[in-house]
Amino acid sequence: MRNRRFVLSSGAALVGGLILARRAPAATLSAPALSANERALHALNRLGYGPRPADAAAIAKQGAGPWLERFLDEQLQPSRLAAPESLTQQLSALEVLSLGQAELVGRYRDAIKAAREAKREQAQGMKPDADAANAVREKVRPLVAEAATARLARALQSPAQLEEVLTEFWFNHFNVFAGKGPVSVLVADYEQRAIRPFVLGRFRDMLGATARHPAMLTYLDNAQSVVAGYEPPRRARRFLDARPELKARQPTGLNENYARELMELHTLGVDGGYSQRDVTELARMLTGWGIDMRKALAGGTGDLYAFDPHKHDGGDKTWLGQSIRGAGQAEGERALDVLAAHPATARHLAFQFAQAFVADEPPPALVARLADNFKATGGDLRELTRTLIKSDEFWSREAYQAKFKTPYQYLVSSLRALDLPLAEPRPLLAALAQAGQPLYGAQTPDGYKNTAAAWRSPEALTQRVQLATTLGQRSGISAERLSATLGASLSEPTRRTLATEPAGQQLALLLASPDFMKR
Amino acid sequence: MLRRQLLHFGAFTLGGLPVSLARAEGAAPKKLVVVLLRGAVDGLSVVAPYGEREYAANRPQIALPPPGAQDGLLKLDKLFGLHPALAPLKRHWDGGQLAFVHASGSPDPTRSHFDAQDYFESGTPGRKATADGWMNRLLTALPGEPGPTRAIAQGSTPPRIFAGTASVASLGLGPAAMQRRAIDNPQLQAGLAKLYANDAQLSSTLRNTTEGRGEMARSMASGGEELATDPNADGGAPSARSFAGDARRLGTLIRKDPHSQLAFTSVGGWDTHVSQGAAKGQLANRLASLGEGLDALATGLGDSLKDTVIVVASEFGRTLQQNGNGGTDHGRGNVIWLLGGPVAGGQVLGEWPGLDRAALADGRDLAVRTDFRQVLAPVLQRHLGLDDAALAAVFPDAPAPWRDAGRLLRT
Fold it and tell me: Which of A219, A230, B9, B189 is most buried, taking the most CB atoms under 10 A from its CB?
């Protein structure tokens, strides 16, 4: 810190009134700029899940400069990148990606019902149907495992690596937890249809898609938030009267959960200038945004979102200082418009983005530029990403190898560097869970952190060294080959130290090196 | 099998280092275990004010029946009852080593889980710039010798409360937490030490890892009766993870490690916005598991419970009124639990503001009348022996001493 200030002030003194110091960050004065090879590896590590042997070969063949130029162009236009045949085949075999929301939730409900019935029969001393007793294990869990397989397969093999890291980032930003009821069978659809299409599109579209997705409506309870004093329609009353347990669970009023997190996490940020009153009023505006469960009951198809005017609180509201006239579903749409265009949202997202892709404590000037870009483009996420990639801060020596990998990043980058195929995802998922980052398993709506302070600990080190040892043994590749793949991201001191180590532990040490722990 | 492994592991990592397993002369060291309930537990269900008319009136579906009724509260006094799912803890109340401080919490009015947890862990409500956690500052301020396992963080990830410069050991979750790992191989350790030489943070993490694991393994292997009877030692399946098993392992480790004094663990899943239930249901299930876990922690601590204060807290409380879904939304005041030999148990402390509308925070939530730091201060001073200057280092800008401070502990 002191050093950097010193450099700035002495630099300014040297150049006098010249504007050099303003454009060029301090780092370029104090540390050498990244070499072409370092830039190529930096791009692979930050805008993807790290190099595979084939990437190292391509860089060597084309030269780092030309390779990088093409890589960056392609990554911002991922539709031009053809997925390898093996990946396409693997994905097309996954049922969870082809089923609609109604079918997914229908299967979930059938399985839960069958299992409950079987349990009841068992309690009464009857022998339940084996299929029914195992319904959850056989019908639901495979769908959840498929979601994880799809995510890992793409992270490992997709040439559109930027799209993959952005999908992880934005999913985490709009986190849902697969452990909450039917969210389990919906996470794949949520990622596929509410997140992935918009990671290089418009923020407002992603915000709207998440707001209407049954995974979010279930996870943050908005599907159950209704106007105070709500009574079910007459056709349902007799049905409910006969089922007091079900009747007791019918919603009778507001639930603030989604409205709060929508402002605190998804848009404005916790310091975005809203009050408890604004939370309650926004919850009222969003009443009626819910799920039509009848579709899932009757073997229906298609999406489950429905606005129910009977559940909506049509009264007038005052929200963020504005008077809101009762206008049904349009109130919620207007709220999303206001939130997406709010300057606090631009600041909040810019900080999160820069923290994930540049540094745990991102340079304020970069955050400000990203926020300005977000406002100027009306929340165009391709332009936001382009601004990041064009920034001096992204390519600075200070940012290079400065992010400590999360367990997920560590695992995926290890598999890529070792060129290990995705055969059986279960042990990998277990390793992630043990490391504190189960895939689709972040319970809280803030998702997972990406800072070193959140992940670097003795327990984490213990697990990474374990994984490094296990994967190193399994891969059967040589330390030389791994070194060649990691290329410029491996520092000279690390190479020198490794050369003095016994051959048997070189591979594990490479994977546990500071250079590979970071990106 | 497991025991043999651990014994072997202990000898293995010892190298030639001089190690004394003998306890320090004189009094056993005083210990503090903090359990954070992440997600805001409904304190009005943990210690329910059944004596208040407004309690049942505001919670038609989720209020607990009064003591004596079917599925009723376990009576604590004329006003308060304990959730029936916490029955395993009643013996600690009856034995005079479990107390509660009601209407307590943070002075900061945020209803954001993440900010409120951050404030609890930094110990500086309202100030986000605080880089370290209060338990790390406490570790620095604690009288006595430093050591690699003086503080133990349980969990897969480093908790904010222990962030800072002083070394903290970590204990993983699940039955496999104490098994031998690749990093326990001295040759690999030596290689890593060389690789990390230019990286101050990783070097220090590695040092904490090797020293902490070495000492924990030696401690757990000593005496040796424990692991063989551990019901969770089932071959290391991570799915067998449960709070009770983890809590018992933590308690055992603290008892067996002569240097351990501070420990932290956390339990999530308290954010009951929907169908929280009453004597049965979602919250009851969670509380039953928590109660079982705290009882297991006490069991694991064994004799050491007489020198240990266990503090259980959550970032804020929940709304007095049930919401539209038989759940509760984010509120303010909560209850802090204190368990252990030094605790003057059998009482619900703290100024009780009541549940009349005029007494509620923002017209809806139980008010905060006691700052969590006011409750922790006597524990830090009278139990752990901090002087005023040390306390001020742990909790800068702390509020004035609490009126009940003298009644919280036996000594």
Answer: A219
